[in-house]
Every structure is written in structure tokens, then in C-alpha cells.
Amino acid sequence: MNIIKKNILSLLVLSSVLFSCDTFLDEVPDDRTQIDNAEKIGELITKAYPEAGYSPFIEPRTDNAGDKGASGSENRYNTEMFFWRDVDDTDVDFPVNYWNETYEAIAQSNHALQAIEELGGGSDLNHLKGEALLTRAYAHFMLVNMWSKTYNPATAGSDLGIPYVDEPENVVIKEYKRGTVKEVYDKIEADLLAGLPLITNEYDVPKFHFNTKAANAFASRFYTYKGEWQKVIDYSTKVLDSDPANVLRDWGGFYQSLTYSENLTRYTSTDEPANLLLVSGNSLFGRFYASARYQLTSDVRNDLFTSNSNPIPSRNWAYRVFGNDLVLNLPKHDEYFRVTNATANIGFAFVTYVLFSTDEVLLNRAEAYAMLNQNDNALADINSFLSVKTRNYDATTDVLVLDDITTFYAVDSGVYTPFYGISADQLPWIHCVTEFRKREFYNEGLRWFDIRRFNLEVTHEDFVGNKMVLEKEDNRKQLQLPPDAISFGLQPNAR
Description:
Blueprint: H1 2-11, H2 21-25, H3 38-45, H4 55-58, H5 76-82, H6 95-118, H7 126-147, H8 181-195, H9 212-226, H10 229-237, H11 260-267, E1 275-282, H12 285-288, H13 298-305, E2 335-341, E3 346-357, H14 358-371, H15 375-389, H16 402-408, H17 427-440, H18 446-453, E4 458-461, E5 467-470, H19 483-487
Antiparallel strand pairs: 1-3, 2-3, 4-5
Helix pairs in contact: 3-6, 3-7, 6-7, 7-8, 9-10, 9-14, 10-14, 14-15, 14-17, 16-17
């Protein structure tokens, strides 16, 4: 069965050599073949979240990564991604593995939705239907934003998307097509809007499910990428308190007193107010995120986390960077080793990842306010953010005013070039929010999506001074489809 399952995973959605109903149901979490009640459907949906991380292969592609030199630890996924190369490895922490795990999660969502339909629906199943729709939408959203061009309404109707799978696979051979980015986004939006009203918080551990705040956070991100700013504000406000600083990650206060191990544990804890949705995925990133060669160097640290980049005069960022030059890191990725054979000490390494947080939502809203020229509201969110991200913050002296933003975050008009226009007055605000996001989500991958949607240029320099440039509209910003996908007829991305 393991060999069969491995083959299925590598071809899922691509080759169409997919499970029959019976063989698929042999693999559900509770090992039973009849999904005939709410409890079993709920167990099925627990597998509808991709059990893999994207940070390991996405972050090295960004401008948050530097070269530590030959003394740094070489990891293939880290090295290949730093140089923006195409890879076909199927091991954990590689793009192909994330593709496979994400389509497997989609299959779980679809079988849950089918089971709900076969049971006649009903109000007692609505929360499960909502979660299944949200997981299906989220999985496709992540895939299209890695393997396709960024959303642009002027070209989305012709840009190649990814296969949107919205029904269980019940034939031995089934053909799939990539469709267009517009078609994928339309289907994501349909699932999102259908699922949102059905979402509840009735879970034993809500933060490992699409609870109400996590669902609205997803909507906030989705409409940020589409540039529908009032919707971003509306959905973000449903997540945040009237005083949003109360629910942000308190780097300037609570985290300052923690040891390295406590910091590592707290970052992905369900007790952390900032965490909205968590997932545990098979990953070795917890072992290599600090030591990998193409990660946080002294130069990158100085650019990101020292006082020269904080807009408050004489104040430093509160982010806690640990380690020496070869292992500089912010402790975020804690490994849990799941033992399968205690005698042989054999098992699988898992890392918990934060998929959505209040910090992202607040910055989405600040960006939306700025794009609607509601600068006072944007400034209020920016000050809330700074109040818990700045060391020794003093609310009586450290509150920024409008001129502080336009002065400190002045930037050339050619840097940010999304599909929508950004006026000269809006540009400093967008630069400010994007710079905040770059630091807050260091080593979590979100910087890559800003690089894509703003068409930012990235320059990497190796240890001996050779520079490599990822151009603003470089085709390498779209990951190459897995070889199996291409061999079964899906058109590869241009190179």
C-alpha cells in the first residue's frame, strides 16, 4: 500500500492514475471505507490541509537570503532555490513534494464534500462543508501563486493557471488541463464565499482548522492579491480587535523575556494570540533553517533587524536574532519527531507552520487603507504594529505622524509596479507596509508573494561577489511544473 500510495501522490491530478473510491478510502485517517457520518467526515477534513511547508523552498528565492560562504551547511533545496533553478526532487521541503501534498489535501476536501452531499447535507454538516470549501480554495490559491503568473486582470484570462480539481476522482484515467489564472481565481472566490458563512469555531483545537478568524484572514489575503481594497478592509476588520496591538505578536514585550527554546515553542503555539491557522507538515526545516548556507547572513540581518531600518528615531526592532554568523536565526520552526519504531529510533520529522496571523491581516488592512487614500487609518495600523515590534517603545514619544512615513519610506516610482497604479502619494505607504511584512514574516515565505505581485527585482550575490538578478517579470518567478505533470500533458511554464 505504501508503494501504491507513493505512486498515487506523484501522479495525483497530473497523471490521472487516481484512486478509485475504494482505494482512496483505504487511506483516510480513520482507516474505514464508509464515510457515513459527521465524525468521519471531520476526520477526513483533518487531512485537507497540505502536510508540507513552502518556506524551505520559497524563502531562499527572496532578497531575505544571503550567502554565508563555503562554511555554511549545503542543503540541495536551499542551494537550488537561491539560484532560482528548476528542480524535480520529490523529497520533503522541495516544490514537487508541496505540489503533491497540496493536491492530496484537495482530494480529501473533495471526498468530504461528496460525502456531505450523499448524506443529504443539512445544518449539522454545514460547518464541515464550510471547512472543506475553504481548504479546497486555500490549496488551489497557494498552488496558483507559486506555479502560475501573479494575478493581473488584464492578462489573467490567458495566463496559464493550475488544474482546479473540484470533484472526486472516480475513473482510472482522467485528463486535466491548466485552465487560466482567471478561471482558477474565479473558482477560489466561489469556494471562499460559499464556505465563509458556514465556518464556526466548534473544534477541539480551533487553530488547526479554518475557524472564523482564519477564514476571514484568508479572504483578506485573497482580496489583497486581487487589489479589491474595500473588501480587504472589511474582512480584515472582522479579524482584528478595536485595539489591534492586543492581538499582534508582541516582540517588544512578551517575547523579550523568553529563552531561545521558549521563543521557538511559543512561535507556533495555539496560545499565541497572533496565530490564526496552524498546520503540521512533514519537514526537516527545523534542523536546517539556521545553518543552511543561503539564509540569514550578517549583511541581511543588518539590513532587516537593526535600528537603521526602524522609522522611529533611536529605536531598534524588537525581533530577536540568535546565533553567530553561520547560524543567525529567528527561532520559528520547531521540530517534532514522530517515532514509528522506538527500537530503531525511526520516524518522521514534522514542523508546525503558521499559515495565517493577525500581523498579516493588519498589514493587509494598512495597505488597503493607503490604496484608498485613507492615510489616517493606515497610520493608526502602522503605529499599532510598531508599538509591539519596537524595542523600548514609548507611546508618548514614538508615535509616527504622516510626514514620517512620506520621508522615511520615500522610494523610486519604478520599484513597485503591480497591475494597478500606485500614485506618488501612495508609494511611501506601500513601501512602508511591504518593508514591515518583509521583516515580520522573515523565513516564512510571504516575502516571495510580495516580490511576485509587486514585480520586484531581486539581486543575489554569492560569497565571492558574483551577482545574479531575478528581473521584475522574470519567468523564473513561476516554479516549473513537476516532470510527471508535464509528461501527462500539462503545458510547462516558459523558461
